[in-house]
Specification:
The protein has 1 helix and 2 strands. It is an alpha+beta fold and 76 residues long.
């Protein structure tokens, strides 16, 4: 699966990964009782010589206890 974004310098965008993954995973279930998915993402920058920062926030609800985590990726 691939999604392309064109962003001007000094801008940001959000990709809601669930909107991409859940329909695909639901169409090809390997085990209907398993409700979690393993997902990886690769970011490629083309035609740009500057710096790119990618962030991956994760929000969850574990048996009624909400939580979250955040990871920044930077190559400069």
């Amino acid at each position: 699966m691939q999604e392309q974004l064109q962003l001007p310098p000094q801008s940001r965008s959000t990709v809601f990964i669930n909107n991409l993954v859940v329909p695909l995973a639901s169409a090809y279930p390997t085990n209907p009782s398993y409700i979690g998915y393993e997902v990886s993402m690769d970011i490629q920058v083309m035609g740009h010589s500057g710096t790119v920062v990618a962030e991956r926030p994760l929000y969850f609800n574990y048996f009624g206890d909400p939580g979250g985590t955040d990871v920044l990726g930077y190559t400069g």
